[in-house]
Amino acid sequence: MGGKVTFTTRPRERLEEIYDREEEIKQLVELLKKNEWVALLGSRMSGKTSLAKAVSHSLDSRVVYVDLIKSKNLLDVLTRIYQAMPLDVISRIKENFSFIELGPVKVKIKQKITPKIEELIKSLCDKRTILILDEIQDIKSGINHLIPVFHRLLNTCPNLSIIFTGSEIGLMKTLLEQKGEQPLAGRNPVKITLKPWDYETAKEYLKLGLEECGVAYSDKEIQGALSILGTLVGWLNFYGVNRCVKPHEDALKESLEEAISIALSELKNAADKKWKIKALKLMSTGATWSELLEKSRVSTETLSNFLDKLERLYIIEKVEKNYVISDPVYKRAALRL
Ligand SMILES: Nc1ncnc2c1ncn2[C@@H]1O[C@H](COP(=O)(O)OP(=O)(O)OP(=O)(O)O)[C@@H](O)[C@H]1O
Ligand SMILES: [Mg+2]
């Protein structure tokens, strides 16, 4: 998609703004047309929110986008879904939800929240709707109450598709690996994974964007930016937004710092023990299984679980015999742990 590239640090809303991703767009369109449920997976800054929004808006459906990042509990989830509802739906249902205005003090009884969430989402069943639940993995407590809700919605609300976004490990843990087996009655959402671009695609993207904002760039600068930032679309937009108004060196420095701070917070979440930090530092240049085992001094099972988690967070990959942090920004961030 998209011949014209305009850099921005915000998620994209329209299909014309999405560069590349033809295959993923096609898959998502097909699934949504059939009202299937989808899990849109990928690392931080890989373009999950953009793809979910842009594709949904291109279809002939009502779209409700809910940002669940750092949601605290089910009342918070209910409130966020309510606030995301279109006005015509709100005017139809508002009497039943007036208690939301009262805030958390008055609404204490947790058990009552779940049926309200179900009722609220059900108010969307009257016509074709795509509900985007962005970063659902962030719901810290009460998610297990929601699984039966999703299960019933799948069976009773044929007009509704849900797109869940997150990283594989977060999303799968939250949604699909709840105790009580087969949480969604075996009808797991279809997974679509967003990978970083290949070098050529990323290069073309940067060039088109810089031409669009009328900057005189050199090939050497583009190579420099790609070797420092890698090919993850979010990092490239940080650079592009800066580069459109600043010289290359400044733009690169600033976008790198911005990117490292995001990567660092992800790594800190994943590495809560000293041995994990040590292992991550080793993997910034690549390390074999036996090296990691020797230096981290944990059991094979513990190490294997950690590596598995990092792989499912898209932080590391196995290249031949080496475990290595794939993204150059994450490599630098690991050395700052
Ligand atoms: N296909 C694309 N073409 C052009 N720009 C894109 C594309 N996908 C994402 N972007 C840009 O990359 C940045 C990150 O995108 P987005 O917020 O959608 O990613 P994300 O995976 O949801 O990130 P986060 O982990 O922060 O939630 C944004 O600036 C967005 O505009
Ligand atoms: Mg996002």
Furnish the topology, listing elements before pairings.
Layout: H1 22-33, E1 38-42, H2 48-58, E2 62-67, H3 74-84, H4 87-93, H5 113-122, E3 129-134, H6 143-156, E4 160-166, H7 168-176, E5 190-194, H8 199-212, H9 219-229, H10 233-243, H11 248-270, H12 274-285, E6 287-288, H13 289-296, H14 300-312, E7 316-319, E8 322-325, H15 328-335
Parallel strand pairs: 1-4, 1-5, 2-3, 3-4
Antiparallel strand pairs: 6-8, 7-8
Helix pairs in contact: 1-2, 3-5, 5-6, 8-10, 9-11, 10-11, 11-15, 12-15
The protein binds adenosine-5'-triphosphate (ATP) and magnesium ion (MG).
The CATH topology of the largest domain corresponds to Rossmann fold
**What is the helical fraction, as a range of percent?**
40-55%
The rounded distance between the terminal residues' Cα atoms is: 38 Å
Radius of gyration: 22 Å
Name the structural class. alpha/beta
> Which oligomerization state do the chains in this entry correspond to?
single chain
What is the number of helices? 15
CATH architecture descriptor of the largest domain: 3-Layer(aba) Sandwich
> What kind of sheet is the major sheet?
5 strands, parallel
What top-tier CATH class of the largest domain fits best? Alpha Beta
String of helices and strands: HEHEHHHEHEHEHHHHHEHHEEH
Ligands present:
adenosine-5'-triphosphate, magnesium ion
Shape: globular
The parts where pLDDT drops under 50 for at least 5 residues are none
Q: Strand order, biggest sheet?
A: 2-3-4-1-5
Total individual domains: 3
Strand content: 5-15%
Q: What do we call the CATH homologous superfamily of the largest domain?
A: P-loop containing nucleotide triphosphate hydrolases
The average pLDDT score comes to 90
Beta strand count: 8
